[in-house]
Amino acid sequence: MITDELRLLPARAAQFIRRHRVHEDSAPETGFSVLDVLVHCAPVRGDAFVVFQLLSRRALPGSGILDRGALDDALGVLDSFAVTEDECTETFGPNWPDVIEHAVDAAALLHDRLRELGAASGTVDSRRRLAAWACARDAAWASGRIKSWYRAQDAAWERCHMDERTLREDERLCANLATAVRDAAAALAVADLVGSDDFTRSHFETLLEPWRLCSPGGASTRTRALHR
């Protein structure tokens, strides 16, 4: 489901940039990147990372700071971009509703309810996890969806934002949670491919297990994905 908040976020970001523009030909006095602007403007934090991935398929300045040379291009894309089901499918694949829901849930938990998260380490043997991840990747590649598979993981854990600004006081916690969040996204993105090639239900559950165990809402995510 595409919420109103998600649908309106590109326009809100464009409005913010224009509001902070000093002169017609200058960038806002914020030092913000496009992603920073989206995070600032998003009523629902996870929507920023989802929209950033949706926009990544366009000629949009990425994580770099907005400057005069990039400002008009960024505004042009934000003004013309519409968050639609077709865009979501092209960006994240046919399982985009679960991918987006996971990204939004993960962002909220990591930002607002971090202390409620359990330890993600030790829940699944690393060799089993890596084998499951590789099989999911191979299934995504064979189906022609490798780019959308990686975008699903980036929407759930945006490295250029999370790795710099989240959980830095505990590097191991950061790494374990990043793995759990991204593995769950990797599984959800190819949930419809379970049983194809070498990607099995066991692989799917192995990828979901760490996030399901460490997050308060993880179990419901797993149930939704398995019973679609």
How are the SSEs placed, and which strands pair?
Blueprint: H1 4-19, H2 34-41, H3 45-55, H4 68-80, H5 85-92, H6 96-112, H7 126-142, H8 146-156, H9 159-165, H10 171-189, H11 201-214, H12 218-226
Helix pairs in contact: 1-2, 1-3, 1-4, 2-3, 3-6, 3-8, 5-6, 6-8, 6-10, 7-8, 7-10, 7-11, 8-10, 10-11, 11-12
Number of domains: 2
Q: What best-fitting shape do the alpha-carbon axes yield?
A: globular
Structural class, from helix and strand content? mainly alpha
Tell me how many strands there are: 0
Helix content: 55-70%
Query: Could you list the spans in which at least 5 consecutive residues all have pLDDT below 50?
Result: 219-228
Number of helices: 12
Q: Overall pLDDT, averaged?
A: 82
Please provide the ordered H/E string of secondary-structure elements. HHHHHHHHHHHH
Largest sheet: none
N- to C-terminal separation? 14 Å
Percent of sequence in beta strands: under 5%
Overall radius of gyration? 18 Å
